[in-house]
Amino acid sequence: MRCPLCDSLEDKVIESRSLAGGSSIRRRRECLACGYRFTSYERLEDKQLMVVKRSDRREPFSREKLEKGLEQAVRKRAVPQLQIESIVNEIEEQAMLQARAGNEISSEWLGDRVLDALYNLDRVAYVRFASVYRNFTNVAEFITEIQKITSWRGAPGVAGPTHEKRQD
């Protein structure tokens, strides 16, 4: 595996972890030339997981797109990159298990998993992501979402958001 920092081909595997029910492997590696640590993934080359959009259009699942969306939501927040990577891994694994038979998941299912993860990670990031995901069109929608978060936090035994569909 080529080091992304120095291009050396010499590395050692520090940790391996099975993901998505054994259909992929995550490996933490360390470059023997410069000491840089990085992550690689091995996946079965099988039918690609597809995301069914609201318009019924289908597109391939993209780890990079998921990670980019999370990074945008947590931008300028005190959230370590390792936590984002962990969330991406967890959501990807859940998606693979969810889509086992048909190799498809809905974008709503995927968005709800992201909202759940962000709700537990950072409430500001949660509202940022929700505003794009639910296509907020005015300030009142932001206020309503913030009021929901505030009431969830104060209510004992209430788990958090219920990702109800927008009423347009």
Model description:
The protein is of the alpha+beta class. It has helices at 63-73, 81-98, 107-121, 123-133, 139-154, and strands spanning 11-19, 24-31, 37-43, 50-52, 58-60, 104-106. The protein folds into 2 domains: 7-46, no CATH class; 48-154. Helix 4 (123-133) crosses helix 5. The longest helix is centred in the middle third of the chain and has 18 residues, at 81-98. Residues 154-159 and 164-168 have low confidence and may be disordered.
Category from helices, strands and their pairing? alpha+beta
Low-confidence parts, pLDDT < 50 over ≥5 residues? 154-159, 164-168
Q: Compute the number of helices.
A: 5
Reading the helices and strands in chain order gives EEEEEHHEHHH
The largest beta-sheet arranges its strands as: 1-2-3
How widely separated are the two ends?
A: 49 Å
Structurally, how many domains make up the residues?
Answer: 2
Q: What's the Cα radius of gyration?
A: 18 Å
Largest sheet: 3 strands, antiparallel
Q: Kindly report the average pLDDT value.
A: 85
- Estimate the strand proportion: 15-25%
Number of strands: 6
The portion of residues assigned to helices is 40-55%
Apparent shape: globular
